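Task 17 of the worksheet. Students: predict the tertiary structure of the chain below and write it out as structure tokens. Keep your answer in the requested format; marks are given for formatting as well as content.
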Amino acid sequence: MSAKPETPLEAAQELSHAVCFTGIHHCSVVVTDVERARRFYRDLLGLKPIHKPRTFAFEVAWFELGDDQVHLIPREQADSVSPRHLALHVEDAKTARRYFAARGVETTETTPIPGADRFFIQDPDGNRIECIQWLRPYSSEENAPA
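Model answer:
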């Protein structure tokens, strides 16, 4: 029997040997009107609708984007406003800003990240969506405290 880890770091190192996380599979977003949200994510953002699991006897909407998914979960009330968000890669942030402006979707600028061009939009329920174009790979070293 192995000894119990004594520190959080030791516990994390032990876990990393037992479990191998390989990525993020999906993000769930709370919406108050599934059909309105479906139109936004499908028609405006261009996400591909996919079938929910046949074992789900309740209303949800699932979308695919590359190897990842977005799941729309209906609730009576929208989530409270917070910094919580999902981020979508865009090929060209300037073009994306023009696209949303032409469709009456407000864009909000935010704190810059070196090597990225990014902004936020909101879905009809106020969920924040970051649109980000990486101009070069993110560098943790470049962003280390001085």
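Marker's comment: The beta strands are 26-31, 48-50, 61-65, 68-74, 85-89, 108-109, 116-122, 128-134. The mean pLDDT is 92.
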